[in-house]
Amino acid sequence: MSGTTSVFGIRYPTSGDNVSPLETVFQTMADDVDYVLAQRVPSDWTAWSPSYAGITVGNGTVEASYMQLAKLVVCHYRLTWGSTTSFSGTPQVILPVASYGYALNDTLGDAAFYDSSVGSASREPGGVFYSSSDEVFFVRASTTSGTVNATSPFTWATGDTLSFTATYRAA
């Protein structure tokens, strides 16, 4: 087969090619598509060790992973508070893959804040917003909405969690 697609290089027959037996041509094309997809479609999530502004993880635990498909990135993050975990100012997490450059306060996803001392009654919804330099910050979405910090939406303590999922375009 002498023709190839311009984007992914998938081979296809042209008028001068021998297309007999036809099943061989189709098998070759299918193999090419399989190969291209295997190179571009993530097979699993990739672990990510975030950088921070205003967050000291200390003995807390972090679960962070992402997957990227072309320019689309989806990331998930969860911080479970330990006795030496702390926030200062406006806590921010740096995204795992550089973004194309969003505007300040663009929404990238949803966040949740859980106060373990109160149980399921204290699940606080919120959002993930672009700050700058691929950092994101969090805003709670309750009747007293505002930026998350050391005492908002509650005073953080051992066992509390901050989690978010963000979807964005890579650079």
User: Strand count, sense and closure of the main sheet?
Assistant: 10 strands, antiparallel
Number of domains: 2
Low-pLDDT stretches are: none
Instruction: Quickly count the helices.
Output: 1
State the distance separating the first and last CA atoms. Answer: 35 Å
Which of globular, elongated, flat, extended, rod-shaped describes the shape? elongated
> Average pLDDT value?
86
- Secondary structure class reads mainly beta
Radius of gyration: 23 Å
Q: Assess the beta-strand content as a share of residues.
A: 35-45%
What is the percent of helical residues? 10-25%
Multimeric state? single chain
Number of strands: 12
Which terms summarize this structure?
mainly beta, 12 strands, 171 residues, 2 domains, two-stranded antiparallel ribbon, 1 helix, 10-stranded antiparallel beta sheet, elongated
Provide an overview of this structure.
With 171 residues, the chain is mainly β. It folds into 2 domains: 3-40, no CATH class; 46-169, no CATH class. Helices cover 11% and strands 42% of the residues. The protein has one helix at residues 22-40; strands at residues 3-4, 11-12, 46-47, 52-56, 61-69, 72-80, 86-94, 107-114, 123-130, 135-140, 146-147, 161-169. The strands form 2 sheets. Strands 3, 4, 5, 6, 7, 8, 9, 10, 11 and 12 form a 10-stranded antiparallel β-sheet that branches. A two-stranded antiparallel sheet has the order 1-2. The longest helix has 19 residues, at 22-40. The model has no long low-confidence stretch (mean pLDDT 86).
